[in-house]
Fold this sequence. Notes:
Blueprint: H1 9-22, H2 30-37, H3 41-44, H4 51-63, H5 76-93, H6 97-101, H7 110-125, H8 130-149, H9 160-175, H10 183-188, H11 198-221
Helix pairs in contact: 1-4, 5-7, 5-8, 5-11, 7-8, 8-11
Keywords: DNA-binding, Repressor, Transcription, Transcription regulation
GO molecular function: DNA-binding transcription factor activity; transcription cis-regulatory region binding
GO biological process, one term: response to antibiotic
Amino acid sequence: MADTERLSRRTLVEKAVEVADSESLDAVTVRRLAQELGVTPMALYWHVKNKDQLLACLSDHLLAEVTPEFEPGAPWNLRLRAMVEALVGVMRRHRFMPGLFALVKEEEVPSFTRATEVVLDLLSLAGFTLAEGWAVSHYLLKGAIALVDGEPGCPRTLTPAQAAEWRRQKRLALERLPADEFPRMVEFAKLMENETDVEAYYTFGLDLLMSGVETMAARKSQGDAPDDPRS
Length: 231
């Protein structure tokens, strides 16, 4: 970009997303972005004052992509699930996001603050206190991150032939376990022959996350309140 007048914070953040997606979050530096945009590093400091602000802007930009879809008047649990599903979807598109969240202060990311407010409101409709809702929102965020971080299957960089060999080696490792001591693990080895159904993995994981929240909400509606998470 020879014309520095076209440089904006949005342009800067979009380039940061591009670099992080194609390489890694570690590759996102002021010097690297300046090189990619054809400007001097000092030109970027008109838009972000330091690396921390850059990462906060990057988080805000990505969280703005979280656009849950649900029917008007949908109950609180369906709206909440739609939000978690949308967040997981964005993290699946941008695999560096879990690491990014660990580096930013949530209160410095406007999109995160707005999303948290919506979640707290939904959880209040479910009967949770504000303290409980805050804890639940935290658990859901960490659970969504863990789902994406823990996606099963072989490394994405492998070719189909390499992936098949990777699964074969995993199967053989399990089959070598003593069957009398680890019968379930040895039996599970047979499943390693097949590719992982990733969509089923995410559906099952979201069901687990949401069923816990829904069960607690049902208990509260029956007068069996959980312990205050602050105690």
